[in-house]
Amino acid sequence: FPMRYSKTKTDRSAQRTGSHRYSTTAFQSDGFIDTRHTIRANLRERQRMEAVFGPEVIRLARRFHWCAFLPGLLSGVHVQGLDCLPLAHESAPILAFAHKKLLDVLVIIEILAGRPLDRFHNITIIGQAGLFNGIYAYRDLIPNALKTPRTAPALAAVSSRAARTLERWFRLVNAHPVYREGKDVPDTESAYVDPHFGGAYILGKDFSDFKKFAARETRDTIIQVLNHMNADGLNRSLILLPEGGYGHDGSIKELHEFVALAAHRKQKPTYTITITYDELCPDRLGRIASYVRICKPALPPTERTPDSTRFFLNQLRNSLVHETVIVPSHALAAGVRYFRNRRQTFGWNDFMKRLYLTRDRLLQSGQPAAPTLSRDDMFKKHVSRFRSTYGARWLRRGRGGLICHEPSIGRYNRSERSVDDVEWNYNHVRHIPDLMTD
After folding, report:
1. What CATH number is attached to the domain comprising 126?
2. pTM for the full predicted model
């Protein structure tokens, strides 16, 4: 593991006695806790974890934990605020996560499995229905070029088979599907039967029957989730992504009203949890670091009125925007964007001068910052990573200096985002003033 920690007196005593009541301060780096250490400590008391989730869920989480750090995925998940979560004997909260990309699944598993054991609650999850029925795998993971009327039935069969495995996993952790208008439920019948969406091939229903089915499933999910939060003294945390899907341009979208309904009906606090990826600074194995911040809880609405709901949702959204941890990728994206907009050549020294000015403005904003941004030695290391990866493709040598190479910048994952990687990363911090001014 790249981050070392020294064992506290409690840790050494725990090794002798067989119990493990760890102090999270032993795993901290500048206020962030590496989940690999906390999960490793939790697994020493596996019976306590299984008492909450059951042995099958813990085995599954352990497999995902191992997979999370494979090449091309995550180099670390660093969390700030784990000790803010309520204790296990207290009322379980609502946890509202920002939704950035597919890696969120692994990050959320790391957060939930890495919580201190004295803050473990069982969970109920609301997830997009496409993950349960194969629509997501077919729509977002299979290239559109392969989808034709001839190939669609075979591809749909593969997606449905994969979905059955995913659904079994989701059911183990009390996950329930919600059909989103425009995503899981297309706006028109022509979009539904189009091979690029594949609804008719995967679900075997005509459009009108599918819309009725989706509405019924979503209604049943809402009823089940509200019941599960306190049924039979289970005291479960509600896990949801209140935007209802990716922020395809990197920004935080408007939040769905269900989170306000659940908070009001159950009178539970809502903790917003921001997720950030330092994706422009991968390590030698192509892995990126994730930084997570658990924010102060928002009190539930006291009344069910439009104004009260709007105030509550704005409070959550502002928290997700302004509590997002700033990482080197955000400064680098702002630096590239500055020269890209000016459409002129520049030197590497010019870029570095602009980069450090941007970094200073980000740090002065008061928004949470990763140690890789605030510490000079770590920042230089991450700039070097950028220069040898994305920078080598985006910043090309031209007449008179460097230029921003638009064809390279224009290559990005279009199933995950609607803008290029420069804009996607910049949009995380675009609300901070003066980033683009001289």
Report:
1. 3.40.1130
2. 0.86
